[in-house]
Write a structure and sequence with these properties.
Blueprint lengths: L1 E8 L1 E2 L11 E2 L5 H19 L5 E9 L7 H15 L6 E6 L6 H10 L3 E7 L3 H7 L5 H13 L4 E8 L6 H12 L5 E6 L7 H7 L8 H17 L3 E4 L2 E3 L6 H7 L4 E4 L4 E4 L2 E5 L3 H9 L5 E3 L4 H12 L6 E2 H8 L3 H14 L3 E3 L3 E4 L1 H5 L1 H7 L3
Parallel strand pairs: 1-4, 1-11, 2-3, 4-5, 5-6, 6-7, 7-8
Antiparallel strand pairs: 8-10, 9-10, 12-13, 13-14, 15-17, 16-17
Length: 378
Amino acid sequence: MSFGIYIHFPFCKRKCRYCDFPSEAGREDLIPAYIRALIFEINSFAEAYQSRFDGPDTIYFGGGTPTLVGMENLYKVTEELLNGFGAENVVEFTVEVNPGTVNLTFFRNLKKLGVNRISLGVQSFNDAILKSLGRIHTAKDARAAITAAQKAGFENISLDLMYGLPGQTMIDWQKTLVEATSLGVKHISAYGLQVEEGTDFYKLLTGGKLNLPDDETEAAMYELMCSYLPLRGYARYEISNFAKPSSLCLHNFGYWTNKQYLGMGASGASFIENFRWSNVADVKQYIELLEHERLPAKFEHRTIKIAMSEFCFLALRTTRGIERAEFFRVFGREIDEIYSACMAELIDDGLLEDDSEWLRLTALGFKYANRAFVSFLL
C-alpha cells in the first residue's frame, strides 16, 4: 500500500501577521542541526516501514518556507527520503515556495531534484494588502516567480490566495482572481482569513484595530470565488481548492480520503495503520530529542467514534463526499446506523444531499460547512 510523505521546514524570513503555523523567523542558525535531526528521523522511519509498504506516491515539502534552508539541504533531505523509502511510486512531489525567496536558477534546481509541482504563497496581487499581511514579496515578485517556474519547465503550479483581508474590497478580490487565472496556473487554493489567537492580527482584532470586511462583503467574496473560478476552468474539488482537469493536489486529497501519510519534522503529523501521532512543534525541542535518538512524537488515542467522525467530516470537505460502501468497508457498519438523525436534519436544511450511494454537501452546505462538520461529531 502506498502513502504520502510530508516534510515540515519551520523557518521563515519573517512571520506573517496572520500566521499561527508552527514556524520561526530569524532562526536560520538552527537549520544545520534541524537538517541532521530530520535526516535521523527519516532514516528511522525508513528502516521501520520500507518492507511493509510500497513506498510513497506523493511527497510534500511544506512550512514555513522550505526553500529558506537552501538547495544543498533540500538535496540532502530528498536523497535520504528516496534512498530510504524508494522513488518508484512517486507521482507528485510538491514544494511550497515564497515568491520573495526564489529565482529561475532555484526553480531549475528544484526540477533537477525531481519536484514536479510548485505551490506559491501569493495571497494577493495588491501590494498594500501584502504589506499589511507582513508578506516579504510584492505582486511583481509573485508574477516573476510564476514566470520563472514556468520557464524552468513546471506545468503544475498552484497559487494560494486569501480573501476577507484587512482593507480588502470586492474590487481588490476580483482583480486578484482575474490576474491569478490569467497566468496559466493549474491550481488555486483560496482561503478566507481566520484570525487565530496568538497572532499579530488577533491582538489588533481584540484591540479594535483590525479593519476587516463586514460579513456581507466577505460572503460576497466567497460567492465570487465560487462562481468565477469554475467559469475560468477551475473545478472545485474541496472547500477551498479549485483545479484544472487532472491537476488536483494528490497529496492533500489523500488527507481527506482516509489515505495513510507520514509526517516528519517539527509538528509533522502521521496516520499509519489507523494509528495517529504528531511531532512536537518546538524546533529546539525537536532537535534535542532526536540528538538523543528519541522520537519527538506525541501519540493520540483514537476511539472508533473519533475515527468515524474524522472520516465523515474530512470526506465532506471534498465535492466527492462520503461513499457509503467505503464507510462500511472501513468500519463494518452502515453509516445510517450511526448518523441517520444528523443526516436527515442536514438534508432538510439543504446542506446535504443523498443519492443512495454518496453523501455530499450542497453549495449551501459548503458555505456553512462547519455546521455540517459539527453534526458528525459523536
